[in-house]
């Protein structure tokens, strides 16, 4: 059963609808509309299925901030070991390090 915008329940299995507790036969127009809605629904579900892997991955990836922190730590390590960075990467690393210096992580007592 599917519920229409007006509250009418429509069955795609049998050409009837329920309204106010009574069962009515669908008109040819209602049958065609129901088939079109069902076709559109299936198409939308197929499109969603094509990208389900993206939503599944997103749920399991580590937090983006944690990912970026690891990447920038690695880039900083490369810079400290003498590797030349692209200008964009070097500039961005400089901005990140400036923010970390401005707002240092509190030291933890052992």
Q: Shape from CA axes?
A: elongated
Tell me the major beta sheet: 4 strands, antiparallel
Terminal-residue CA separation: 63 Å
* Structural class estimated from helices and strands: alpha+beta
Number of domains: 2
Tell me roughly what share of residues is in helical segments.
55-70%
* Low-confidence regions: none
Q: Beta-strand percentage?
A: 5-15%
Summarize the helix and strand pattern as letters: EEEEHHHH
Number of strands: 4
Please report the number of helical segments. 4
Average pLDDT works out at: 89
Radius of gyration: 29 Å
In what order do the strands lie side by side in the largest sheet? 1-2-3-4
Task: Report on this structure.
- The protein has 110 residues and is an alpha+beta fold.
- The chain contains four helices and four strands, in the order ββββαααα.
- It has a four-stranded antiparallel beta sheet with strand order 1-2-3-4, with no helix packed on it.
- It is elongated, with a radius of gyration of 29 Å.
